[in-house]
């Protein structure tokens, strides 16, 4: 009896099950977002755009030139920057460790953009024509951004504008490299489309038409310099013979003109930040205040979304933060771009200072806002840099710095607790040689450091100030450089003097190319521009030829109760040499394995 | 329970004894390639670390490999796979060689490359006065037209026979470099007779010394003199 019951139950379950199941196998999967869902509304497209923006190769606080773009929640080592190998700073890299790049090859992201560009026109009915056009313009800008980041690394790369079909024949999937010139021209055209199709304004963090023009001025300047300077200073090889790297010199003028024209498009729409009449404070705030009329394209960070960066905790010493450490420091060579610091008397003896802060007197406000000098303050604490104590000091600065360490009469210390007759030997903020978490040069970075944060809040992954990827200051400098290269020195002078007057510097009466380039170095310091500038000017192998950099070491002279400053090699005295082959990075070996049509590789790889 | 454990142990023993019984039956690479980088001006090309290399491109393979040359201008690699390779010397201070040679590399394959150096250093003498070393030499260019700009000339001083770029004492070597930055054709006869000095050598030590002339070619490479031994008296 029992078994019959069981049988009845089993039959009814299986019959019932078979009646209701397998009716339809061909249903849309519920765990995959289909194009219909994404393209049915602007919000849907926005969610797709978010991925593309997140992976955009913006060289921000977290970018590590030897490892790549970082989007994780704990990418805190922000001192591994390109500034710390190119002489703006010295830092944790042991030498020119970033020349080979990190094998950047973002065709996955480019495929996303290509898909967007292919799909959008099919959804005009739901999205409306103006929306589709604006989004297409944005997509062209984004595609150009990706290609720009490859062109400046590899020269010519395969230009792929449609989402490839994975089932297609291998021969069509293995796309050949395009010439370098074609790659730059493609970037220029894409940015023109972006400028034409995008609206004038955008949400913060997204591009508008002026971002496209701004990026174009940057990119075309790069192409122009490759044409003008790359045709003089180059490494020969089959890739060069085929035009995969290198641009004919006679194309330079057209690219400089394109850079100039693009920069000019922004005139009247953006302006230099100058809200505060205190020039130092104004320049500090430029990088921290939201809504600045100078910001063209920014990248934002959020603690809640686990994307915050660690600039504040890694640029200042632990003495002034709640956690972590600093490891990269501005060099004296960089600081002296503004002119020699007045630390020696006419007879060569070091000037005596009553206190460290006197060193800052009369310096350009922009310099003081870019670098923390000995004697400056942050969060109520003083940068008390002191390398050691001289019980007494006689002789010239040069002679003293040239002596072997063991024949110098100074007192040094391995930690901040050591006292000499009741006086602390080294400062809480260094410099010392025991490690690199205190300055090796006598300076600290000030640009982008949020001075308003209470010390207890300065922790890792707790900094949210946006990265200003494109700002009007750069555009004026792009314009000045292009104008100068085109022989229009009047325009270059006007643009540079706008920058200088905002910086609190004396305006120039006349201008030359060297002044324009130096202005760029000073204005855009630590913004991950100078490394690429050195590369496109093709001067990196000259500037960074077994280069050693200097620091400015403050000492206390005990019997005089005064401070002196001596220019000495930075405390690790590291050497930096840029090989000529680094002007181009090698195409990643793994990619060549997948697609031999990428050969020939760049010269000397 | 005991039974179960012993059964498991038996199983493990069987698995262990049956695994890894097959040895790797592929031979390691045993072809070799060696030879000289011969200067067209006679003798081997004197080189240094991080300069001249032989670039090998295995036919049918995409990534090249290199054999660095030794300081005396010889090279050798005994762990290559037997195959056809396209080979070319590169990276050193000689006129670029564009034609690759195809070589079938097998056991004991030998090949010499002839290159034309940018600069030849002649009449190299080293004279020690006290602790100051004076180095004199003449430079000649087998082919002067189109020669890359001459950047600088410098001594290389080290405590071992391996002396050259990247293997020298900076205070004695790089810091005594003489900047030239001129075209060879713009140098006068007097300019081509060069003198370098290395002051303040340490008494009682033995040093190995050579001079190098650096050019701004693709590699910022240097032509070197031969290496001499200098004994500084106590």
Describe the fold and architecture:
The complex is a heterodimer of chains A (605) and B (234). With 605 residues, chain A is mainly α. Chain A folds into 2 domains: 35-281 and 584-598, Serine Threonine Protein Phosphatase 5, Tetratricopeptide repeat, CATH 1.25.40.390; 311-465 and 548-569, no CATH class. Helices cover 37% and strands 7% of the residues of chain A. Chain A is built from 22 helices and 13 strands. Chain A has helices at residues 2-20, 35-39, 42-54, 107-119, 124-127, 129-154, 170-173, 180-197, 209-229, 238-241, 252-264, 279-286, 311-315, 332-335, 365-370, 397-402, 472-485, 489-503, 513-523, 530-536, 540-543, 589-594; strands spanning 89-90, 295-299, 329-330, 371-372, 377-378, 381-382, 388-390, 419-420, 423-424, 444-445, 467-471, 550-557, 562-569. Chain A has a 3-stranded mixed sheet with strand order 7-12-13. A two-stranded antiparallel ribbon of chain A has the order 1-3. A two-stranded antiparallel sheet of chain A has the order 2-11. In chain A, strand 8 (419-420) and strand 9 form a beta hairpin. Chain A is globular, with a radius of gyration of 28 Å. The model of chain A has no long low-confidence stretch (mean pLDDT 94). With 234 residues, chain B is mainly beta. Chain B folds into 2 domains: 31-115, Carboxypeptidase-like, regulatory domain (Immunoglobulin-like, Sandwich), CATH 2.60.40; 120-231, Immunoglobulin-like (Sandwich). Chain B is 9% helix and 43% strand. Chain B is built from 2 helices and 16 strands. The N and C termini of chain B lie far apart (83 Å). The mean pLDDT of chain B is 91.
Short précis:
The complex is a heterodimer of chains A (605) and B (234). Chain A has 605 residues and is mainly α.
């Amino acid at each position: 009896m029992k078994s019959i019951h069981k049988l009845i139950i089993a039959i009814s379950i299986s019959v019932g099950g078979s009646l209701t199941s397998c009716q339809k196998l061909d249903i849309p999967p519920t765990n995959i977002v289909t194009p219909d869902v994404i393209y049915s509304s602007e919000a849907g497209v926005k969610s797709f755009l978010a991925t593309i923006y997140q992976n955009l190769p913006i060289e921000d606080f977290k970018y590590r030139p030897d490892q790549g773009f970082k989007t994780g929640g704990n990418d805190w080592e922000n001192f591994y920057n390109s500034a710390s190998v190119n002489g703006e700073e010295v830092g944790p890299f042991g030498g020119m460790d970033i020349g080979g790049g990190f094998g950047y090859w973002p065709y996955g992201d480019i495929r996303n953009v290509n898909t967007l560009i292919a799909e959008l026109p099919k959804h005009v009915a739901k999205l409306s024509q103006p929306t589709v056009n604006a989004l297409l313009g944005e997509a062209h800008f984004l595609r150009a951004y990706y290609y720009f980041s490859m062109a400046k690394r590899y020269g010519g790369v395969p230009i792929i504008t449609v989402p490839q079909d994975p089932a297609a024949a291998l021969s069509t999937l293995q796309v050949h490299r395009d010439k370098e010139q074609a790659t730059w021209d493609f970037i220029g055209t894409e940015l023109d489309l972006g400028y034409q199709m995008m609206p004038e304004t955008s949400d913060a963090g997204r591009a508008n038409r002026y971002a496209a023009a701004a990026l174009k001025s940057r990119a075309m300047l790069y192409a122009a310099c490759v044409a003008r300077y790359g045709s003089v200073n180059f490494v020969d090889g089959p890739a060069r013979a085929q035009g995969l790297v290198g641009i004919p010199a006679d194309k330079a003028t057209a690219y400089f003109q394109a850079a100039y024209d693009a920069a000019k498009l922004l005139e009247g729409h953006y302006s230099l930040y100058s809200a505060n009449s205190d020039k130092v404070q104004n320049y500090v705030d430029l990088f921290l205040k939201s809504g600045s009329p100078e910001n063209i394209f920014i990248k934002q960070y959020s603690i809640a979304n686990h994307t915050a960066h660690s600039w504040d905790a890694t640029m200042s010493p632990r003495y002034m933060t709640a956690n972590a450490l600093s490891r990269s420091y501005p060099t004296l060579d960089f600081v002296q771009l503004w002119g020699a610091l007045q630390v020696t008397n006419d007879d060569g003896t070091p000037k005596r200072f009553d206190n460290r802060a006197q060193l800052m007197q009369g310096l350009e406000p922009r310099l003081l806002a870019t670098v923390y000098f000995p004697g400056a303050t942050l969060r109520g604490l003083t940068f008390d840099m002191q390398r050691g104590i001289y019980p007494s000091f006689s002789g010239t600065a040069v002679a003293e710095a040239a002596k072997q360490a063991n024949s110098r009469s100074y007192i040094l210390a391995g930690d901040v607790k050591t006292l000499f007759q009741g006086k602390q030997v080294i400062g809480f903020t260094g410099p010392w040689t025991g490690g690199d978490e205190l300055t090796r040069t006598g300076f600290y970075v000030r640009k982008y450091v949020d001075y308003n944060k209470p010390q207890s809040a300065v922790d890792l992954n707790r900094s949210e100030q946006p990265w200003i990827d494109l700002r009007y200051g750069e555009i004026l400098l792009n314009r000045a450089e292009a104008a100068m290269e085109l022989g229009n020195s009047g325009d270059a002078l006007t643009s540079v003097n706008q920058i200088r007057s905002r910086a609190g510097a004396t305006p120039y009466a006349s201008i030359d190319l060297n002044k324009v380039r130096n202005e760029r170095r000073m204005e855009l310091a630590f913004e991950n521009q100078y490394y690429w500038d050195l590369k496109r000017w093709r001067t990196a192998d000259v500037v960074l030829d077994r280069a050693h950099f200097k620091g400015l070491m403050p000492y206390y002279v005990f019997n005089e109760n005064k401070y002196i400053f001596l220019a000495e090699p930075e405390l690790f005295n590291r050497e930096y040499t840029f090989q000529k082959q680094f002007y181009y990075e090698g195409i990643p070996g793994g990619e060549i394995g997948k697609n031999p049509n990428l050969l020939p590789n760049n010269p000397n790889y | 329970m005991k039974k179960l454990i012993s059964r498991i142990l038996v199983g493990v023993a069987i698995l262990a004894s049956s695994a890894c019984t097959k040895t790797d039956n592929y031979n390691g690479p045993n072809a070799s390639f060696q030879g000289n980088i011969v200067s067209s001006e006679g003798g081997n090309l004197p080189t240094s670390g991080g300069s001249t290399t032989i670039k090998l491109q295995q036919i049918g393979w995409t990534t090249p490999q290199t054999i660095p040359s030794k300081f005396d201008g010889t090279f050798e690699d005994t762990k290559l796979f037997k195959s056809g390779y396209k080979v070319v010397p590169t990276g050193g201070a000689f006129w670029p060689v564009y034609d690759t040679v195809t070589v079938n590399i097998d056991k004991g394959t030998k090949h010499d490359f002839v290159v034309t150096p940018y600069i030849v250093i002649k009449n190299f003498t080293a004279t020690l006065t006290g602790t100051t070393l004076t180095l004199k030499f003449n430079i000649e260019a087998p082919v002067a037209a189109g020669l890359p700009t001459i950047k600088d000339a410098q001594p290389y001083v080290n405590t071992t026979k391996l002396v050259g770029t990247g293997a020298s004492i900076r205070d004695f070597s790089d810091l005594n470099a003489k900047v030239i930055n001129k075209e060879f054709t713009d140098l006068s006869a007097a300019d081509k007779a060069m003198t370098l000095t290395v002051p303040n050598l340490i008494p009682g030590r033995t040093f190995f010394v050579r001079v190098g002339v650096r050019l701004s070619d693709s590699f910022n490479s240097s032509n070197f003199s031969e290496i001499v031994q200098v004994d500084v008296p106590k």
